[in-house]
Amino acid sequence: MSPAQHYDVLLASDLRLPGGTTASMAEELRAQAAAGYRTALLHVPSSLANRGLGIEPRLRRCLDDGLADLVVAGTPVHATLAVLRNATVFDAVPANLPVTADRAIMLANHVRVDAARVQHYDVAVTDQAVTDWLGVRPTWYPIGPAVRPGLESVRDQIELAGTDWLNLLDVDEWAVPRTGVAPGAIPVIGRHSRSSAAKWPERAADLLAAYPDDGSVRVRVLGGADAVADVVGHVPASWTVEEFGARDPRDFVAGLDFFVYFHRSDLVEAYGRTIMEALASGAVAILPEHFRSVFGDAALYTTPAGVREIVTRLSGDRDAYLAQSAIGQQFVRATHGHESHAARLAALIGPPSDEPRTVPSRQRPAGRERVMFVSSNGAGMGHLTRLLAMANRADERIEPMFFSLSQAVGVVEQYGHPWEYCPSRGDLGCSVEEWNELFPVRFAEVLRRYRPRAVVFDGTMPYVGMVSTRAKFPDIAFVWSRRGMWREGTTTKFLSRGAIFDLVLEPGEVAAAADRGPLVGRGDSTHVGPITLLDTADLLDRATARAELGMDPDAPALLLSLGAGNINDIASDLDLFADAAAALPGGWVTYATKPPIQRRGGPLREHVTPLSVYPLARYLRAFDAAVVAAGYNSFHEVLMAGVPSVVVPNLATTTDDQGARAAYADAQGWAVAVAEVTAQSAADALRRVTDPAWAAAASARALEAYPANGAGEAMQHVERLIGVHR
């Protein structure tokens, strides 16, 4: 066995988990890198997350920024300190993780036994499993006062620390200037939490006392309010409610005067990260009394009936409001700031072994030109992903932000871009006429609030509301990213709406020679290369991609990725290919994707492993063959990666000529096209793409034919339009 790699700190957990666990790990990674502590990140698979998920985006970004090293299964590692987060993950540790440590810490990030008397982890079992694995017994740290009593009651079974391991937050990224509530203005109160009955008071009187519907305050909710309707009978019409993930939480809490959080009486909150975020922003927090042990003087405490009095009093006393706001921010900075974490580590293991590193800022620099990227709600994620590819290549003088009809818009956050979601007609379940009245109001409101220099729209048809709104904002440049390869005979009546745009960009098409659609030869657009989210250099090699996905390093692997299935049902095609894959000789392992936008689809065949990662292209080289949809994005990505592929056109699309695209790829020897999926055609296609000789030749031809990524070129055209020259 090779000698162990040494690190100051090893952070370990199930790296796929969303929410507070991985958010806190990402903050610690940034703080450790800034202080000079050499850090390794270890994935320990558990039943808490879907086995097909990839590394959580915030952690993925830390790895991409070089703030930590990812430990590949089987690689010997020794750490001065191992920090294990989420006790439920460590009741059993896989045998292929050869890790040792001088010291170990087990972070209990939620209560051992909840209010319903459900036990979430057995401390004795977990303690022994970790001791056997690392060769050292862990010291247990609760993440806050609410977790400690459950550990105190079993302290004879564990080594319990005398202090709590408080989570981190970068106050400077959340803080906004506060001026108090202006005289005569209506105070704004709000809350941010997941939509769950446990997160709201169970009595209608308490709920409406804390969040009035009488117009005395403006109530804003981020996270949905279905539970409110269950308690009160309706969601008050005066409230502004956005679904969980509908916008960047930093922007949301920045618009609140008061953060008011009351929940069901039997809920035991381990900490309350959203409260900490609100305090960091400068909002005044109003909470139930039991939070006093956590936040002390940083918040104000009352019953639901007492909320109105506090809001009224502080709204009329600017000095008192600003004083309380400052106390909250100072509390977060002192107890949860990155500096406190560096001091905590120094006390445990001494100074770092490396020099401090420059950690990329997540703050939005002032003085940049804002460009708003607007995507339609397509059948897949093509519109959103093309815009994201452009935004990621913007000049440093540009501040990208997103306004999208796609429910998957939240994926842009992992790249540091703010965003807002606008429900499509289908998602609202309204008529075309109703939506055409709603959209221009929402679009104009966003344009007034963000005041971008340019709007870049990616979609087949500019909306009626976009056309009517454009005239109200003559100083904003409008750009249309209009994909080519339209089906022959597609109506062109909507092309006249292109007159509102100052520039029309046409993303390149590798199969352009087969394009017979109505856009060919129009001469009204600027052509760029094919636009993909990633460049070839961004793709992981086979070994690294497999390690990150937890795949067998040697077994031949087939990827099935037939799109979101939101136009037609792809389940039967998927099953036919899955059945054909099961008959392949050589022990092939089959994986199938579930895109973030997918709304339909039943269970997979038992031998198929689900996979949910974004962007999928990063991991394509983990697979020896693939079956993909012939949509713009997936088609160009598999060619760029050189993965031997079967391409399956969706012949039910309105404009995208996937049939011509797939047939051209087949004729060029880049891929195998299957226009009609049957048991026989699926089996024949898989036999062909898994033949080593054919696969090698097809991969070489695809790589040779693929041009450079056109995303950067497209973005430069936008920048020149608004006077930003590189």
Outline:
The protein is an alpha/beta fold. The strands form 4 sheets. It has a 7-stranded parallel β-sheet with strand order 3-2-1-4-5-6-7, sandwiched between helices. Strands 16-15-14-17-18-19-20 form a 7-stranded parallel β-sheet, covered by helices on one side.
Structure description:
This protein is α/β, with parallel strands linked by helices. It folds into four domains: 5-160, Rossmann fold (3-Layer(aba) Sandwich), CATH 3.40.50; 171-336, Rossmann fold, CATH 3.40.50.2000; 369-531 and 711-721, Glycogen Phosphorylase B (Rossmann fold), CATH 3.40.50.2000; 536-705, Rossmann fold, CATH 3.40.50.2000. The protein is 32% helix and 17% strand. It has a seven-stranded parallel β-sheet, with helices on both faces. The chain has a seven-stranded parallel β-sheet with strand order 16-15-14-17-18-19-20, covered by helices on one side. Strands 10-9-8-11-12-13 form a six-stranded parallel β-sheet, sandwiched between helices. β12 (284-287), α10 (292-295) and β13 form a beta-alpha-beta unit. α12 (318-336) packs parallel to α13. The longest helix has 19 residues, at 318-336. The two termini are 50 Å apart. The relative contact order is 0.08. The mean pLDDT is 90. GO terms for molecular function: hexosyltransferase activity.
Q: Helical amount among residues, as a percent range?
A: 25-40%
CATH fold title of the largest domain: Rossmann fold
Q: What's the N-to-C terminus distance? A: 50 Å
Shape, principal axes of CA atoms: globular
* Percent of sequence in beta strands: 15-25%
Which CATH architecture of the largest domain would you pick? 3-Layer(aba) Sandwich
Strand order of the largest sheet: 3-2-1-4-5-6-7
Structural class: alpha/beta
Count of helical stretches: 24
Largest sheet, in brief, is: 7 strands, parallel
β-strand number: 26
Unreliable stretches, pLDDT < 50, 5 or more residues?
none
Counted up, domains total 4
Radius of gyration (Å): 27 Å
Mean pLDDT value: 90
Assigned CATH superfamily of the largest domain? Glycogen Phosphorylase B
Query: For the record, what CATH class of the largest domain applies?
Result: Alpha Beta
Pfam family, one: Glyco_tran_28_C
InterPro entries: Glyco_trans_28_C
GO molecular function: hexosyltransferase activity
Protein name: Antifreeze protein, type I
